[in-house]
Amino acid sequence: MKTGSASALLFLVLQGLGSTHAYEKDGKHFINWDAHEYPIVAHWNWHRPFPDHGDPPMGFETKCNVVKKFHARNYRLGDLRNGEGHPLYPFSDGIEKFIAGRTYPGSWDGVDHGGMQRDLLMMEWRELPVYVRKWIEDHEMRRPEMDDGRTWRFMVFQKKSKKAAATATEPAAPLRAIPTEGAAASTWTLPEVADRDKVVFFAPGQLYPILPLFNAKGGGKCEDSFADLSRYVPAAKDDAVVAWPFEHSKPDPEHGKVDIYFKIRTEHVLESDHGRDRRLMWDALMRNARRSDRKHTRAEREAGRDSLGMPERDEL
């Protein structure tokens, strides 16, 4: 076995089963089987940052560990076309128009059920934590149209009755800030709609870049670090924040059940002395492995030249 292959194998052994989709649930493992049965969106870069048994990441200690549970309604894109009798009817045309041509960000664990089976979550605006609402207002509702990146965005709608939707001359559109000429987007005025009169739509995959914000309010001594997304990293490092939606339920649309819950775990982690020693040892091991790989590659090239009777570089 080549040194590089041995190094890769050692890395997998040390990392354990970090890439699987099983999480702790009441002493048992919660498994997102969809992650094994369906493809993952091409741009997915998120992976569970801690073990599935509740411990902090290997080599780290936990400064704070906060778990919170949230509720949503889980629809499919196909529900947007179910007509006036469906709860999504007042928003369906506006949602379809807004997501047309945009990249789907994935469901839980980046799963892509494809086409009309893709997940679409709906939450009451006032049930979102305050830090999440503020982020959506600043980074989505006040975001210039030209700066959309062509991906799905959080869609905030004013509630509208089915009757009002049926008689409307234009489809409902997501609420957006009113641009002010010459003023920074951060100062644009938002529509005056009461929190109780708003709902927000999004794909589960949109949660991952802002997970710590869900647990920031009431996060105790770590509220500030959870609210600071510059501390949030996909893999644990010293004095950083990691998070993951480690459990969620599934809808049962055949029986009219669309209500689901999801749980988010957020940790502020600090590298332990043992973890630092292990990391430094690992770094040294990898440097030596790369050096050995380069030496081995050079030897193979020289052996190849000798077998072909090729002159050394200095002889050319």
UniProtKB/TrEMBL annotation:
Signal peptide: 1-22
Name of the protein this chain belongs to: Uncharacterized protein
Bias-annotated ranges (Basic and acidic residues): 299-316
Chain segments carrying region Disordered: 291-316
UniProt keywords, alphabetically: Signal
